[in-house]
Amino acid sequence: MMDWQTIAALVIVAVAAISLVRNLLARRKHPAACDQCSLVQKPKHPNEHVS
Amino acid sequence: MSLPSPSGPRSIALVGNPNCGKTSLFNALTGLRQKVGNYPGVTVERKEGSTVINGEEWMLIDLPGTYSLSANSLDEKVVSDVLFGRIDGTPIPDAVLFVADATNLERNLYLLSQVIDVGLPTVVALNMVDRLEPEGITLDVPMLEQEFSVRFLPVVANKGTGTDALLTAITEARSVPEGQRKWKLPEKVQMEHDELTSMLVENDRLPEAEAFHEAQLLLSTPKDPSHFLATYSPDTIDHLKLDHQNLSAWGFDRHSVFVESRFKWTNSVFKKSVRKRVRRTHNNVHDRIDAVVTHPVWGFVVFFGLMAVMFQTIFTWAEYPMELIGAFFAMLSSAVSSVMPPGDLQDLLANGVVGGVGAVVTFLPQILFLFLFLGFLEDTGYMARAAFIMDRVMSRVGLHGKSFIPLLSSFACAIPGIMATRTIENSRDRLVTILVAPLMSCSARLPVFALLIASFIPNIVLLGFISLPAVVLISMYLLGLAAALVTARILKSTVLKGPKPAFILELPPYRIPSLKNTFIHMWERSVLFLRNAGTIILGVSVVLWFLATYPKSEHESPSERLSHSFVGRAGHAIEPVLKPLGFDWKIGIGILSSLLQREVFVGTLGTIYNIEQADGQEATLREQMQKDVDPVTGAPTFTILTAICIMVYYVLAMQCMSTVAVVRRETNSWKWPAVQFGYMTLLAYAGTFLTYRIGLWITQ
User: Fold this and answer.
1) Which helix (H) or strand (E) holds B103?
2) pLDDT tens digit string along B10-56?
3) B406/B384 Cα distance (integer angstroms)
4) Nearest residue in chain B measured CA to CA from A36
5) How confident is the model at residue A32 (pLDDT cuts 50, 70, 90)?
6) Phi and psi of B526, rounded to 5°?
7) Where does B232-282 show beta strands of DSSP type E?
8) pTM of the complete model
């Protein structure tokens, strides 16, 4: 029988793992570390029309 | 001609020569904080922001700097594509705000005359008018307005003065009627040009202004007309062939006749409207500085001297705030341990989260000082001089100085560096620069270097002014630069062979750095760094805590438990591959987890060592790494040689998924990012192996 701390820790681990995978997939289209676009007030990458 | 957008806010395109202050004006008008720099080529793609004029919202588009609308590099092509509405989903701008450097008007007027020919309502912002008086320049603005038939308004973009009048003028601007065009072609050329323009309108359905522009390009192109068969109708191409023959038979140089005719007129306007008093003292100071910083020998002395000062201060200035941040996280960790009862959640928060995130955030001050220095060097105009002196080195490896600006940008981050390669016209040169840019040491490597140097390199002062840690750090940056140059040389003489184009770089004037700009940029870097720490590093730390804690076995010591965990088993599995480099399994896990991004290495070690640490002991990551020994042999896990080997590995290895993604986008294929990842990983392995072997040979 797991105690509440273990359950809480495992839930946090699962959430972290899912968000990491999502972040990784998102980078294929839009590099998250790209300092050019993270500072632009625009949902789309500004280069999408150009490339 | 006024072309309102079908829906949404009306738009204004900012156009001008490189380094004339477009982005500064864009920031002043929109309240945004785009990166500006005192060297050409900072903006390589269009950027958008909005502003309100008389209660109506307008969209502003900041475009890359260009000298002409007939230019060929990718960033410059964006300008004509936007102005002629060739980009899907982007309507033709309703107005053009032409930004001109008031102190250097001669070359600005050429582009202005091309932009006016596009036929959009245009207003000219005469930027940097505050420097006219010190430089002894007087402008006859009414004369300029009369000749170009558009308004010229004075502004000082970096101080935000004159912007209100400018915005009002834009709303009132009208396009210049075709009949008022004042530059003239020779009669016969004009006749051929008019005929071709009409054909492009009738046969190819081009709008009048675009046809006028295209006709000039087609008549002056060195390419055979049949090259354009896919774009234009056969009738137009047949006519073009005839035009080429006629113009050559009449003795015209097809390429230069258009440039010369336009330039002759803009130059005559410049001479009538600009007066310059000769003030030698001011120029002399700039010239004297340039004589030193661009000197074949002294230039390099200054360059390396500045680098030495930069890295020395990064270490000394950052030490105190780093200790404070470290102490804060140590306190946080013990607070969590004392407030919560023992259990998995307490362990996850105290060791996994605080250990991992804290280890990385500690290096924020060093990152900030790096950007403070880079910001000052860019703003003063020194970066362009560095590119100039490096042109000699670059030409030896088959690249030209234009490639050095993207490489310099890569010291901050390879992603803007790779995007800055769009200024390079030759596609092979561009590709070579993209392939070697991630070898330049970016700011993500700094936490890795700083942790290892601070932990293992003795703090000895050399030659009375520079410390050994600073020398090691400079060596790592130089190793990256050397590896980039050698790789470029190999690529240029093998798979990407090509001629070396001439390099023309306009040296910008020296300017007092804008403190505001530098601090804004530093603030944004901190937000980005902390956001990264709060997302990627946090996520990796949490997952790593799980992998380093499970499967659980109650009757083992913390060190044995870690060794038998999922992470321990994976680490031991890859250890044989890393053993020849002098790395143990914990370093291996650090390398594996930091494939995502480099600074994850520091977070990973922070988490692993915190979990391994026996209960009740408090020690910093540095102390834990210094004390760590091999449980079998008793030999220290980290030595000076191991630390240097890890740094060499991080200088040469790719270890950044964002860069892979951006290379894929910029090269439009998976082939080049795969080649890049492969060659850099091999280079890193071979380089580290060699360093380790040579190190062992010296120390034994």
Assistant:
1) none
2) 889 999 887 788 888 888 888 766 555 555 555 555 677 888 888 88
3) 11
4) B416
5) very low
6) -65, -40
7) 274-276
8) 0.70
CA distances to B37, B274, B443, B553 from B560, rounded to whole Å, are 53, 80, 35, 9
Measured CA distances, B320 to B71, B362, B365, B600 (Å): 50, 11, 9, 23
Structure tokens at B385: 């001089």
d(CA B44, CA B25): 16
Q: Of B415, B566, B595, B666, which to mutate for an interface test with A (greatest number of A Cβ within 10 Å)?
A: B415
Question: Looking at beta carbons, which residues of chain B come within 8 Å of A34?
Answer: 415-416, 658, 662
pLDDT tens per residue across span B66-94: 888 876 666 667 788 888 888 777 788 99
Q: Is B402 exposed, middle or buried (CB count within 10 Å of its CB: 0-12, 13-18, 19+)?
A: buried
Pairs of CB atoms within 8 A across A/B: 122
Sole residue written with tokens 């661009």: B294
Task: For chain B, count helices (H), then strands (E).
Answer: 30, 10
Q: CB contact, 8 Å: B49 with chain A? A: yes
Q: How far apart are CA B112 and CA B116, in angstroms?
A: 6
ipTM of this predicted structure: 0.73
Q: Do residues B371 and B384 lie in contact, with contact meaning Cβ atoms separated by under 8 Å?
A: no
Helix, strand, coil percentages (3-state) for chain B, rounded to 5, are: 65, 5, 30
Residue of chain B minimizing CA distance to A23: B536
Q: Which of B411, B322, B315 is nearest to B363 (CA)?
A: B322
Burial class (CB in 10 A: 0-12, 13-18, 19+), B681: middle
Q: 3-state DSSP call for residue B122?
A: strand
Instruction: State the Cα–Cα distance between residues A36 and B73, nearest whole angstrom.
Output: 20
Which residues have C-beta within 8 Å of that of residue B277, sequence separation ≥ 6? B136, B137
Longest dimension (CA), chain A: 57
Do residues B64 and B40 lie in contact, with contact meaning Cβ atoms separated by under 8 Å? no
In this predicted model, what pLDDT tens digit does every residue of B266-276 receive, in sequence order?
A: 989 988 888 87
Residue B436: which residues within 8 A CB-CB, separation 6 or more?
Answer: B407, B483, B484, B485, B487, B488, B491
Phi-psi region of B89 (alpha: psi -120 to 50; beta: other; left: phi over 0): left
Strand B56-62 vs strand B10-16: parallel, antiparallel, or unpaired? Answer: parallel
Q: What is the reported pLDDT for B345?
A: 92
Helices (H) and strands (E) in chain A, counts: 1, 0
Highest mean pLDDT among B44-48, B218-222, B587-591: B587-591
Contact (CB, 8 A) for B318 and B365: yes
Among the partner-chain residues A34, A39, A49, the one whose CB lies closest to the CB of B415 is A34
Report pLDDT digits (tens) over B107-162.
789 899 989 988 899 999 999 888 888 878 888 999 999 888 899 999 998 888 88
Q: Are B254 and B244 in contact (CB under 8 A)?
A: yes
- Can you tell me the mean pLDDT for B334-338? 88
Q: What is the pLDDT of residues B434-448, one digit of tens each?
A: 999 999 988 889 899
A9–B35: do the CB atoms touch at under 8 Å? no
